[in-house]
Design brief:
Layout: E1 3-8, E2 15-20, E3 23-29, H1 30-36, H2 46-69, H3 76-85, H4 90-102, H5 108-121, H6 127-136, H7 141-151, H8 154-173, H9 181-194, H10 199-209
Helix pairs in contact: 1-2, 2-4, 3-4, 5-7, 6-7, 8-9, 8-10, 9-10
Length: 214
């Protein structure tokens, strides 16, 4: 086959339609076209057509992944699941993830550190809840444990729990409805438990922060 025409697509400025022997052959990205250096008059056989199709698949997978990343950082598993849902092949997925990692656009270790920073400043939560959420996002348990060990030592976690407990008790006192000390402690323990704090930290906070109520 001989390429007889290359035309810009009407609705996609970054794509071209290729015609061979006067008939439509394929729609491709300008990136694929440039990488293969295809021009009108070139011969294109089955082998070149196969390479073109493979490059287009790869380009499509990368485009989907980048659009997915544009809304927020993602884990490797999230991107893999997204590409699988679009029915890209394993080779395209593997190559896309490798390219994104090389460009520092996907890094589960940095993702976990950023997630932990947010949890400490925007949405205070204990290590248990943080681990659970990160595992659901596909981060390896070893990565989570490393980041928590380095960035959320027990004393730091306890300080965050103490601040949450103080805020919780201020709201309780401001409600105008007195309640027995044991009931208030039970509600505080349940609140910290829902926030993902361990029982050791909850016990510690109960001893420290409610002592003045005795």
């Amino acid at each position: 086959m001989r390429i007889t025409g290359i035309e810009k697509q009407k609705k996609r400025a970054d794509r071209r339609n290729i015609y061979a022997d006067g008939a439509f052959l394929a729609g491709v990205s300008t990136e694929t076209l440039a990488r293969l250096a295809l021009r009108v008059g070139d011969e294109i056989g089955p082998d070149q057509l196969k390479i073109l199709q493979q490059m287009e698949e790869q380009h499509g997978a990368r485009r989907v992944a980048l659009r997915f990343l544009a809304t927020r950082p993602r884990t490797e598993k999230e991107i893999r699941s997204k590409l699988e849902s679009k029915e890209f092949g394993e080779e395209e997925i593997r190559k896309t993830l490798a390219d994104l990692a090389a460009a520092h656009l996907v890094d589960d270790l940095e993702f976990t550190r950023a997630f932990l920073r947010d949890a400490r400043t925007l949405r205070p939560a204990g290590a248990i809840q943080i681990k659970r959420k990160l595992l659901l996002l596909g981060v390896a348990r070893e990565t989570i444990e490393q980041v928590i060990r380095e960035d959320l030592p027990p004393e730091t976690e306890a300080e965050a729990a103490r601040a949450l407990a103080e805020k919780f008790l201020r709201r309780s006192r401001g409600s105008g409805t007195p309640e027995p000390l044991e009931k208030r402690r039970a509600r505080l323990a349940a609140f910290l438990g829902r926030k993902g704090y361990s029982w050791d930290i909850i016990q510690r906070i109960l001893k420290e922060i409610t002592r003045t109520d005795e």
